[in-house]
Write a structure and sequence with these properties.
The chain has 200 residues and is mostly helical. Helices cover 70% and strands 0% of the residues. The protein has eleven helices and no strands. α1 packs across α2.
């Protein structure tokens, strides 16, 4: 198995042998991050995120036998959560063209020499009230990104996944994921330009 922490590896092996209590340990360890991922994907709809998190862990329990450990348990769970989200989006908007689904392969690789950070991180002020306002503006700016760029930024920066892990969760080639991150960061810089001007 690849890069499993000892608790995850032990609990996973026991869960795959049918130990429901061991699977409950995995759920307890990862449920906050999975719910956080789904809350971001659903634009803060906590009720929907909780429902999708429950679906995620039910599907994970059913799929335990097919998990070979070629990714971290957290990455595997984030992938299942993302799939549950997409299925729910399709059910809610069956006739809409979901750019999160349809446009993910349409981006050409793009190299960027910028520092590996989201523009809002670099602008973080010391005053708590100002920090709160910046977070609100950053959330609004994220909502204005094309869905595939928003998803890439969420998974790489807000969930702190590596590019490799985010690409696996989103089902993208690594080069495509990096392109989406670079373009999303560039758009965020434009959208948050007023904050940068205040800092100068």
């Amino acid at each position: 198995m690849n890069d499993l922490s000892p608790p995850d590896g032990e609990w996973l092996a026991r869960a795959q042998a049918g130990d429901a209590a061991a699977f409950s340990q995995l759920v307890r360890r990862h449920q906050v991050r999975v719910r956080g991922q789904l809350a971001r994907l659903t634009h803060g709809d906590r009720h929907r995120a909780d429902d999708l998190a429950q679906q995620t862990f039910v599907q994970a329990w059913r799929a335990l036998g097919s998990f070979r450990g070629d990714a971290r348990v957290s990455t595997w769970l984030h992938r299942i959560a993302y799939t549950c989200f997409l299925q729910d989006e399709r059910a809610r908007r069956p006739h809409a063209a979901l750019d999160a689904i349809d446009a993910v392969d349409a981006v050409e690789p793009f190299e960027s020499s910028d520092a590996d950070s989201v523009p809002g991180d670099a602008l973080a002020p010391s005053d708590p009230r100002t920090t709160q306002l910046l977070q609100i503006d950053l959330a609004r700016a994220l909502d204005r990104l094309p869905a595939h760029e928003r998803l890439a930024i969420i998974h790489c920066y807000q969930l702190d996944l590596s590019h490799d892990e985010a690409a696996e969760v989103l089902g993208l080639p690594l080069g495509t994921l990096k392109s989406q991150v670079a373009r999303g960061k560039a758009r965020l810089r434009e959208l948050l330009a007023a904050w940068r001007a205040q800092e100068v």
